[in-house]
Structures are given as structure tokens and as C-alpha cells.
Design brief:
Length: about 130
């Protein structure tokens, strides 16, 4: 079992999602964030007691940005040749087999990953036991 070279503790400044203003009042207004542009909007003007707007200060620490909970960074792989790139970086990156890879090619990728000692995040996807 391959382990990450360095295991950082991931600290999120904010885990709640930013909801779009008045998305709770109207069904036609979706919840995904849109910046308020109205001239009188109290949210745009950042009044006290209003919902917060996303800003750069909520960003994650550079050391832990894009880090998975297991300590690896994700690298999407579509074929065996792309997997070879992780040979020297198997303690930093974990492979994720792309969604459009067939079951037959997945088996080849998983076999090569075991030889290279590369962790595959979705190793169990599209695998059936042989009968």
C-alpha cells in the first residue's frame, strides 16, 4: 500500500456553500451562486446581517489546495502511457481512471499501476469478478 510522502492536515476556512440571493424565495431562481448586480442590493453593498459573498480570502492554503483526504493529489489517466508519468511521483499523485475508459482498458491500467506502485482512486469501478 503506497502512502503519501507528506500528510498535511486540511483546514477549510468555510465549508458551507454560497447560495444565490433570494434562491430560497423563488423557484425560478437557482441556488448556484451569481453575483448580485442591483444598484440597491444590500448583499452587493455588504450590509451587516446579509449573506456573505465569495471572496479570495476564503481560499484554501496553497499546501493543501486540491489535496484529497488521503493526502494525494488527483491525476486523471486515460491510458497506460499516461500512467507511466506517475512513476517518479507515486507518493504525491494518485491516479484516477477517466470515466470514458472501457472495462477492458481499465484492467490493463490497474495491472500496470500495481507494478509501478501507483495508487488508483477508483480502482473498483467497472470491475466484475470472473466466473
Amino acid at each position: 500500500m503506497v502512502t503519501p510522502a507528506v500528510k498535511h492536515t486540511i483546514v477549510k476556512k468555510r465549508t458551507a456553500t454560497f447560495k444565490r440571493h433570494q434562491s430560497d424565495r423563488f423557484k425560478r431562481v437557482g441556488a448556484s451562486w451569481r453575483k448580485p448586480k442591483g444598484i440597491d442590493s444590500p448583499i452587493r453593498r455588504r450590509f451587516k446581517g446579509q449573506a456573505p459573498m465569495p471572496k479570495i480570502g476564503y481560499g484554501s492554503a496553497k499546501k493543501t489546495r486540491h489535496l484529497l483526504p488521503n493526502g494525494f493529489l488527483k491525476f486523471t489517466v486515460s491510458n497506460v502511457k499516461e500512467l507511466e508519468l506517475l512513476l517518479m511521483h507515486n507518493r504525491t499523485y494518485a491516479a484516477e481512471v477517466a470515466h470514458n475508459v472501457s472495462a477492458k482498458k481499465r484492467v490493463e491500467i490497474l495491472e500496470r499501476a500495481a507494478q509501478l506502485n501507483v495508487k488508483v482512486i477508483n480502482a473498483g469501478a467497472r470491475l466484475r469478478s470472473q466466473e
